């Protein structure tokens, strides 16, 4: 094996390790609903396989996991709808419809941003960014389903964001990274960002009806992290 081939193999193993650690952190954040989830376990095992150590293999592992979480979303959503009264079903239906529209718009945004980068590492980064929101949505729906099954009270409606210091602070950060990303993106790709942000805002509005103030801040915080990551990625070699 040449030194170049060896170095490439070591780099891919390092990337796989990083992805596994990232997944572990995300899993710990949702440990109450996702402990030892089979989708996560299968993905870790796939990433660790020597015959899947190439970029193509790692991407295949992540795509399989993403499709698994899509299926988990569908199952949890249908089960949740069956447990809710009519008014709550309508609110969750609006939330799910707008989340799906936002997911599709974000996917186009990721493509536009990563089209400005070079190197196989960014292929894996984009795959991870496509995977994690789907996983998070599945976990959120499972959590809502578990709460519905206990007969727990619905979360208190959040106050206006202007009356919530945490919400205002998170929104300020989000807008800061949004404008940074907008400035750094090629002019031809900026409409994709505008469309994605509008779709996400529509999702946030719908999600606010089915979550509490903390849940709303969590959604905005995830958006801050996404926009920050994209603003630091666009145009990289």
Distance between the termini: 27 Å
DSSP helix fraction:
over 70%
> Low-confidence parts, pLDDT < 50 over ≥5 residues?
1-9, 20-33
Helix-strand topology string: HHHHHHHHH
Main beta-sheet strand count, sense and barrel state: none
Q: Helix count, per DSSP?
A: 9
Counted up, domains total: 1
Strand content: under 5%
**Computed structural class:** mainly alpha
Name the shape in a single word: globular
Mean pLDDT: 87
Report the strand count: 0
Task: Provide the gyration radius in Å.
Answer: 19 Å
Task: Describe what this molecule looks like in 3D.
It is a single chain. With 237 residues, the protein is mainly alpha-helical. It has one domain (3-233). 81% of the residues lie in helices and 0% in strands. The protein has nine helices and no strands. The chain has helices spanning 3-29, 31-34, 38-48, 55-83, 86-114, 120-150, 165-184, 190-208, 213-233. The longest helix has 31 residues, at 120-150. Residues 1-9 and 20-33 have low confidence and may be disordered.
Provide the fold topology:
Elements: H1 3-29, H2 31-34, H3 38-48, H4 55-83, H5 86-114, H6 120-150, H7 165-184, H8 190-208, H9 213-233
Helix pairs in contact: 1-3, 3-4, 4-5, 4-6, 5-6, 5-8, 7-9
